[in-house]
Amino acid sequence: LKLDGHDFLKKIVQYSVHLPPIPTEDLARLLDEDLSKVIGSLSDDDSRRIGGTWFLIFRHYLRTPRDVRLFINAVTVAASRGFEHVDPVDLIIIELLRLYDPEVYWWIRENLSEVSD
Amino acid sequence: MADDKKLQTDLEKLLSRAKNSEGAKNALALLFPKVEQTLETYIPSDGLETAAQKLKRRISQIDFAQNYFRLDPDAASWGRSEIAEALKDPSKAFELLQQKLSHVQERERQRLEIIFFELLDNAFLAGKKLNGDWLEAIVERSPAFIGEDDKGRRTSFFEPDMQDRLRLIVLHGLQNVSVSDRFYLLKEVIKTANDVSLICDVVRSILSDTNPEGAKEKHRRIDLESNGEEIRSMLLIRVRNLANSGEIWSQVRPDHILWFWWGSNFADEVQSFLAEAMNTSTGLLKLLEITVGSVMSSAGNFERVNISTWSKIVDLNQLALRAKAIHVSSNNELERQTAERFLRALDRNNRDYDL
Fold this sequence. Notes:
The complex is a heterodimer of chains A (117) and B (355).
Chain A: H1 5-12, H2 24-39, H3 44-61, H4 65-79, H5 88-100, H6 102-110, H7 112-115
Helix pairs in contact in A: 2-4, 3-5, 4-5, 5-6
Chain B: H1 2-17, H2 21-31, H3 33-39, H4 50-55, H5 62-65, H6 80-86, H7 90-102, H8 106-125, H9 132-149, H10 162-175, H11 179-192, H12 197-207, H13 228-245, H14 254-263, H15 267-277, H16 281-290, E1 292-295, E2 302-305, H17 307-310, H18 316-329, H19 333-352
Antiparallel strand pairs in B: 1-2
């Protein structure tokens, strides 16, 4: 078949409605709720650190509720190993890069000795 | 400097290819202070010192960075709850350390040991108080850990040796206790320690030397007030007893003990003790060993005898003559090797590194 999927759908759905954009505050709230369930309670220091990451990092990658859900699924798997040997906030940021900026993630893996102390 | 420039170029290239360069830049800067400095992002830092970053197992700490990419925990590392539990009780802590050391490969032993001592040091830096049990445990076990350095395992210019590491741990722990507790802790450990090498270094750091040619710098945050000289006198009694009985030569660092003795302004006593020691087989061989020091150099490591330092307490010409005699006439291979090593180090000093 030499058909474009979108053209085909137009024959079935003849009136499309664009969903209203989700306010970033709502996405942040969704992420906050989901993360709390996965990683449990954080120390005051860690809560402060993660508080600043929405504006600096997460809002650049998580633009839809689906992005948030995908990310939370990844964090759930990573967190299942526990936080005995890692810092929870650092792990969350690394998971975000693995999922949404893989080239940066792989660069970190391969250049740990260059950027670590 | 060249490395910084290369890192900056690499990061700029990476960020130009990132899906979201702003987000990636901020993430890298938050994870790694080195990236934050290189890219000058001016992202507010969490202000954590390296010590605290280690306690939190941050990815920026090389000892823990690999944990973020592993499927199973690193056997040569310490989990948060594991170390927290261990730090409650010194005997448990050292028992666990030995247990863990026995389960890792030889090349990972040093790293595991160093991480343990760094975490212990961090706990003291964070305010943990040193008590008698901890001080006794550290001093008691110090010869074994310090002795490992004699096997030549130190590989970095900037890494402190084990004796220095343990000295700093004790000093950091002493910072958190009152002057009277400090006095009591030191008094007790001087009485009971089998090996006083570490204690000599600790006391020397706190009180500095009274010998005008010795070290002047006192530890600024640890004071023993009027009790300082009493501690020195008690330790000197132990040192003299060890010297009289010959046990000083079985201490892990006889040289550090001798320098404490000399630093307490008894140079003449040390000189006459060493002049006599040269007449005994054990004393002579130990002198040939302890006067040889390692020099780490980018052109290759080598050994030398620091003439300007050692000649303050020992007659190096006499020692060289004795060494030549052993080298020529001893039937014992080990003794001949010790003498040869000393003579080579003395000669190297004369040729390359005359101070």
